[in-house]
Amino acid sequence: MLKNKIKKLALEIKAEAIENRRYLHQNPELSFEEYKTVAFVESRLRQIGIEKIEKKAVTGLTALIEGRNPEKKVIALRADMDALPIFEQNDVPYKSTKEGVMHACGHDVHTSSLLGTAKILHQLKNEFEGTVKLIFQPGEEKAPGGASFMIKDKALENPKPKAIFGQHVMPLIPVGKIGFRSGMYMASADEIYLTVKGKGGHGAMPETLIDPVLIASHIIVALQQIISRNSDPKIPSVLSFGKVIANGATNVIPNEVTLEGTFRTLDETWRQKAKELIAKMATGIAEAMGGSVDVNIMHGYPFLKNDPDLTSRASVAAKEYMGEENVVDLDLWMAAEDFSYYTHEMAGCFYRLGTRNEQRGITSGVHTPTFDIDEDALEIGSGLMAWLALKELETVTIQN
Q: What's the predicted TM-score (pTM) here?
C-alpha cells in the first residue's frame, strides 16, 4: 500500500532530515543572501539522484522528479529558505553560528522537510504517473517576496504545474497535527513609510516651531479612522505602526519624524482605496498643521487564498495519512506569506505543520529568539507532503 510505503520511508529518512535541519539552523542566511543554503540544497538533491535542476532568481532553484508518463500531470511543492535578523537565545547544540541571524520562522524545517519529500518521491518514481516540481525559493521574509521573483524567472513554467502545495510550521498546533483552511486564509501586506517634516528647535519655544512630533502623533491617531470608519466591517483590516523615530531630546524638537507601519487586509479593491486614503489623510493633516509629509507605501504580498477544491482534497488525504483526529481547521490569519503569489497564478494549498511540545517547553512563537520545534515534525512534514503530491497527481486533469 502506497501510504504505508511513504510512512516507512519517512521514518527511514527522519534522522537525515533532522541532520539537514540542524545544519541549516546553524548556518542561516538572510533574505536574498541564501548562496550557501541553495548550494547545500542542490548538493543534497544530486546525492538523492535528482538531476533536472535549474537555478532561479539567483538564490533559488527548481527540480523535477519524474514518474511514469511525466508529461501527463505536474504538481509543485514549495519551500522557503531564508532566515531572520534575530539573535538566537536557545541553548541547543544546533544554535545559530551567525550572530544576529536565526531561523526563527521555520524555513530550515520547510527546506529539510522538502528535501525529505524529494528523497521519498525519488524512491517511488516508478509507482506514480506525472511529475513533481520542487520549488526552493529565497526571500520570503522580505518585500516584495522571493516568490514574485521566482515567478518572474519562470519557475512555474516548463513544465507548468496545475497546483501547488506549501507547508509552514505552526507552534500553536501540537506536533502530530496538521491544519487546513479553505478560501481566504492570510492577509495582504503593504509597508508604510512616512517622513513628517516641520521646523525644529528648543522645546521651550513652541511658538517658533512647526512640531513634527505633534504632527506625527495626530497622523498615527487619525489614520486609525480609516479602519474604523472607512472599511467594510466584514473585511478584516489591520493598520499598525511599529516604528517611530523622533531624534530629538527632552528639550529639543527635531526637524522631522519618521513613521513605519503595515497595512493588511483580505480584499484587493479595499486595499488600493485604503492606501490612497492613508496618503491623503497624512498629507492633509501635515499641511493643516503647517508641515509636510513624504509618503512611501511599498506594495507588498497579495492576500493568500487556498483553492477550495484542492484544499478539500488535501484535507481528506491528510486525514487518511494522519487520522481524522489529527487534522484541524484553521482560522483567518492576518500575517502575510509570499506563497500568496503562487495562489494567484494557480490552485494552491498552504497548510500548517504542528511543531508544539509543551512537555518539552517548545512553545515559543515564530519570529522570537527562542523559537524551536519538536523535530518529530520533520518525519510528518516529509511524508505528508509526498502523500499529498501523489494523491493530487491521481486527481488533477491532464495538462493542455
A: 0.94
